[in-house]
Structure formats: C-alpha cells, structure tokens
Write a sequence for this structure.
C-alpha cells in the first residue's frame, strides 16, 4: 500500500510555455500533498503544502503565481509551472499523506528541462 | 537551514564492506525516514523509524535513532555495487507529514 505516482517522469518544454505535473495517490486518500524541488547534486527543498479543497501554503521564496498548485480531489494534486524559464529546470517530487498516518510517501519525481 | 545533516557527505568503500551514514537534526521529531536516490532518479523509501523506536532492521539495513542526541544512523551491511547512490534522511517534525531533508550522503561501492 501507500503508492504515489507522478506523471510525467520527465518533460522537455520551450521557454514561455506552461507544464503540468500530476501527483496521484493510488491506494489511499491523500488529505495532504507536498511538492519538493531538487537542483542537481542538492537536497530536496519543500515548495508548498496542499490540502484537498483549499489553497496551497507556499514556503518562503516560492512564487505562487509561477508554481500553481491544485489539490482538487483526495487522490490528485497538480503542479503547473507557468511561463517556464531555463532556471526552472529541476527535479520536482511530490509526496502524499494518508490522514491516518503521520508519514508521507513519495512519488518517483519529474525531471523538467526548459529549453 | 536544513533540519537534517548527513555525515559523511561522501563515502567510498569496497564491495562487501559495511557502510554507515549518520543524520543529525535540530528539533524534536515525530519520525525519521531514510531514502535512496540513484543518480537522476526518484526517491526510494528505505525505512521509517518513529520517535518512540530505537532500532529497526530491513534486510541488510539497520537504522538506529537516538532522540536524546537528535541523531540517526543507517548501516548497510555487506554492501554491493548496486548500493551506489545518494542517501537522504528526512525528518517529520509533526503529524502533518511534512518532511525536511538533509543534504545527503553519496555512497560509492567499488566492485
């Protein structure tokens, strides 16, 4: 149990376009989902926390209008990188928490390359 | 600053040897998880240890947690070349599920 799936696993897009990344909990209802970003050879940094049916809470320094997060259902959260620039190229990972357990489980990650 | 800090930053050993990585953190935690990440890939969950536990085993993995010292260790016994990866500890500081990652230890196991 506790499987989290991310899609796509990698994506290449042109500067100025928008990219949507999906995070799904496959076998549990995720009351809370988290989005992380990882630069090459660095650790994961939390970007935002999303709770189903409410607005996401963004960490300091993360642009809300650039990284749109929607958590419309208990099994799906999406991260949309708007007007992508090359500096947005990174590895994005989501995690999801089953309300009955304190720990969260991670997706496989999405590698975004903006050219 | 990051909640968790792994030590050492890099570790190189021969196949068959044991590898020990340490993680220190600053605030009280609810749980601590260890993850492996192969180069350019996603995270693989290895083991979770809760704040009321002191030691857990999973195959060749052994994790200890010392809440008084705010530290955890991951021991990989009889290492294999396939264990080559970066290892991260992630601390859960509440029941909310949010994790804070350390900088990771890069392990290289030479065949």
């Amino acid at each position: 149990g506790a499987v989290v799936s991310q899609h796509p696993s990698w994506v290449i897009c042109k500067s100025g376009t928008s990219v949507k990344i999906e995070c799904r909990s496959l076998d549990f209802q995720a009351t809370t989902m988290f989005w992380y970003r990882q630069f090459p050879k660095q650790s994961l940094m939390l970007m935002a926390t999303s709770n189903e049916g409410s607005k996401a809470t963004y960490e300091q320094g993360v642009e809300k209008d650039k990284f749109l997060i929607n958590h419309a259902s208990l099994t799906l959260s999406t991260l949309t990188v708007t007007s992508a620039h090359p500096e947005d190229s990174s590895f994005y990972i989501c995690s999801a928490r089953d309300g009955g357990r304190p720990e969260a489980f991670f997706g496989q990650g999405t590698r975004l390359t903006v050219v | 600053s990051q909640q968790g800090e792994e030590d050492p930053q890099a570790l190189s050993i021969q196949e068959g040897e044991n590898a020990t990585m340490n993680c220190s953190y600053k605030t009280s935690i609810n749980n601590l998880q260890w993850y492996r990440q192969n180069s350019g890939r996603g995270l693989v969950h290895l083991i979770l240890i809760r704040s009321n536990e002191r030691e857990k085993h999973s195959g060749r993995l052994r994790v200890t947690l010392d809440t008084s010292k705010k530290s955890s260790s991951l021991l990989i016994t009889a290492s294999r070349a396939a264990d080559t990866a970066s290892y991260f500890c992630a601390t859960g500081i509440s029941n909310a599920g949010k994790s804070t990652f350390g900088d990771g230890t890069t392990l290289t196991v030479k065949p």
Summary: Chain A touches chain B at residues 6, 9, 32, 34, 36, 42-46, 49, 91, 93, 95, 97, 102-109, 111 (CB under 8 Å). Residues 24 and 76 of chain A are 5 Å apart (CA to CA). The mean pLDDT of chain A is 90.
